[in-house]
Amino acid sequence: MWKLATLLSTLLISVSDAFRNPIIPGFNPDPSIIRVKDDYFLVTSTFEFFPGVPVYHSKDLIDWTCIGHALNRPSQLNLRGTAPSGGIFAPTLRYHEASKTFYMITTWFDVISPPDNTTGTPRSMYVSTKDILDEDSWSDPVYVDQWGFDPDLFFDTDGKTYLTTTMGSGFIDPDSGYFAIWITEIDIKTGNSLTESRYFYRSELPINTPRLAEGSHLYKFNGTYYLLTAEAGTEVQHRAMWHRSKSLHGPWESSPYNPFVFNGRNLSQPILSTGHADIVQAPNGDWYTVFLATRPQNPTNSSGVPQLGRETFLAPVTWKDGWPIANGGKDITFEIPGLHNKPRPKVWQDHFWNGEYNGFADRRGG
Ligand SMILES: *[C@@H]1O[C@H](CO)[C@@H](O)[C@H](O)[C@H]1NC(C)=O
Ligand SMILES: *[C@@H]1O[C@H](CO)[C@@H](O)[C@H](O)[C@H]1NC(C)=O
Ligand SMILES: *[C@@H]1O[C@H](CO)[C@@H](O)[C@H](O)[C@H]1NC(C)=O
Ligand SMILES: *[C@@H]1O[C@H](CO)[C@@H](O)[C@H](O)[C@H]1NC(C)=O
């Protein structure tokens, strides 16, 4: 009886008072999210697969439906001959309020790590639509001038549009640690740069962490610019970092609460490689972050390979001294209090020990 009561209360808690990560399981890396009125939209990377860049829709951050793909015809994306791990890299999804237009910007690598070990960094491209629910309405791509990948579009309050990208920066700064962030102001109608590309931000991490800054997202909160970056590479040292400045010319102040998400302090955790985040505010004023993470099947000291790929995770965000903090500063877990859980399909298990299937077994007890 006691056991039954405990079990029931456990179930009730997990169903009503917590949500379960990942929120979008499977191959869904580099999530970028926006909210427009009561609707959330989220996009992820698709690399050498077609169609490119799924667009997910949700009303509550928990139940997500794929409503189409932003790149769905050859005039937008032609992957013929694209190498494995080439194709579509991290996208950013943004909404331009003044023109009621959605923009999705990304980078198409036709070749990565060719035999001379020199990865070319192509120019990024964006597509736009005023009706994100209609997959066919996405425009043909507009290519930008500035080289680099992991592009971000930022619409400033004065009407200017800024593009930031990630580029190998050793040629200008031997201490860049290689990948760093560059910025240019663009004309959103043509994609053309209006200013020269400028070396914008480099990681402050020790050189062997490794020092890499990628996946930038720029925001303005209460008149201050905030820069969110994915640092230290996409493996177990991966983390998200915040900096802020009164000016796009810096200097950048580092958050005392960095890293924003980072499970890599304990490599035995079942969730690793947390990073490449984006942030969104709910209609009730609460804040959330989405980011990628992996579920290595043998996490002890990170030797496990994440067979499920890089998936989309969610955590609540609170603010302290004007700095965002994910999950109260705690590591990311499968169950996180808040929002709601949704019914999960039963787990099906077969050990292939005999000629017949072994039936259904529910390993989560729920
Ligand atoms: C490319 O890198 C690999 C691995 O480090 C090395 O074995 C190979 O010689 C390099 N190729 C060239 C052309 O530098
Ligand atoms: C590291 O994570 C593992 C798996 O969650 C846990 O068992 C262990 O206690 C953690 N170690 C430390 C030092 O927190
Ligand atoms: C992980 O690696 C560290 C450093 O090599 C070692 O001290 C620790 O015992 C290892 N932990 C496990 C659980 O294997
Ligand atoms: C902006 O300022 C308002 C008023 O001081 C405050 O309530 C809010 O939390 C601030 N927002 C951010 C994102 O810092």
Account of the protein in words:
It is built from 1 helix and 23 strands. With 366 residues, the protein is mainly β. The chain has a single domain (25-330), classed as Tachylectin-2, Chain A. The strands form 6 sheets. Strands 6, 7, 8, 9 and 10 form a 5-stranded antiparallel sheet that branches. A 4-stranded antiparallel sheet has the order 2-3-4-5, with no helix packed on it. β7 (92-96) and β8 form a beta hairpin. The radius of gyration is 21 Å and the shape is globular. Mean pLDDT is 90; it is low at 1-15 and 361-366. Bound molecules: 2-acetamido-2-deoxy-beta-D-glucopyranose (4 copies). One 2-acetamido-2-deoxy-beta-D-glucopyranose binds at residues 268, 300-301. Keywords: Glycosidase, Hydrolase, Signal.
